[in-house]
Design brief:
With 64 residues, this protein is mainly α. It has three helices and no strands. The protein has one domain. α2 crosses α3. The longest helix has 22 residues.
């Protein structure tokens, strides 16, 4: 659980973990993508999935 201490360790750990989930997931972090309001195409579905994976990864480590 991230409690505000050892930030540099946590930062490296999260960067590595999210990058390991794939380039599309890491792009969400760098580009600050948002969930589309309506998922109608295959690309929007992939974007939605990558957003969800990124949020899950962050929350899992923050609240662990």
């Amino acid at each position: 659980m991230f409690n505000g201490t050892n930030y540099l360790f946590w930062k490296v750990r999260m960067n590595t973990y999210i990058q390991s989930l794939g380039d599309d997931v890491w792009d969400v972090v760098e580009e600050e993508n948002q969930k589309p309001l309506v998922v109608t195409t295959k690309d929007q579905n992939m974007e939605f999935t990558c957003n969800a994976k990124t949020i899950n990864a962050l929350l899992a480590d923050l609240l662990e």
